[in-house]
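Box 3.1 A note on notation
Throughout this textbook, protein chains are presented in two layers. The first layer is the amino acid sequence; the second is a token string describing backbone geometry. Keep the layers aligned when reading.
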Amino acid sequence: MKRPVLLIDDSENILTRMKEFLEKLGQKEIHLEKCIENGIKKFQELSKEGIHPIAFIDYDIQDGSGISLLSRLLELDPDGEIIIMTALEKNSEIISKLINEGAYEILSKPIRLEALKNIFSIIELENSEEPKYADISELLKTTNRLSEAWLSDKLSVNNEELNKNIERWISDGKIKQIEDIKEVFCPSCNSIKTGHIFHCPQCKRSDFNQIDLIEHYSCGNIAEEREFRNDKCPSCNKELKALGIDYRRIKNHYVCNSCENKFSEIGCDFLCLNCNKQFTEEEAVWKSSRGFLGISKYA
């Protein structure tokens, strides 16, 4: 049975194009939402027992933050695959952080049919009852940096069988061994399937937006850019004239929609995607296992 697919993007053109692509790939149940709150409600509605939606969300959605939205969806259903759609470069630090902390995959804009097809092929492979662990090439499409612990979890095989396959993949030139990789495990169920829940450091809620701030040098006022209407300071009512001379723009700040706290550093906890336990960095269990790197022609 095909799982429901949810698209959350404030662009009507992208929603229409994505829907057309998904229909070509045989997807039947497709839901479109243009704002965060409606998207979260629909995701919760679709997350039924034994059924986990596949969500495609816009990183730069206008009414919120892609990081915040990722956290809130993971809280509702840790087993739902959440794919981030963005125009950011693949080697961006933000992209790496999103992948490492809960996003299932990154889909680059402009959206291409072949990229969508690859994502659904990997989802089907990973959710099949009999993992196709004889060929690692499909797994290398998701990441080219692998750990022995991660492989063991993904492939659900015993240590002897895993070691045999690792030796063959190395011999075939598909992977090579690198330094050990240290990873977080759940302190409750010992699962390696963990992500991050990003939150306001004051009230711990995940409902926050990314904002830019303006600092007006002459009066010292710092406020959200939207408060400087008609290029005038909301505190002293003087006109802003030259960037870098009488004011500056402070980027990468956030505002909490629950307590209105403004902050530059996002708070985060770990979330176990297996038992749904939320835990702090101090509570996390850290373990090391052999590390491997996918050879470029397979990765």
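The mean pLDDT is 85. Residues 113-126 form the longest helix (14 residues).
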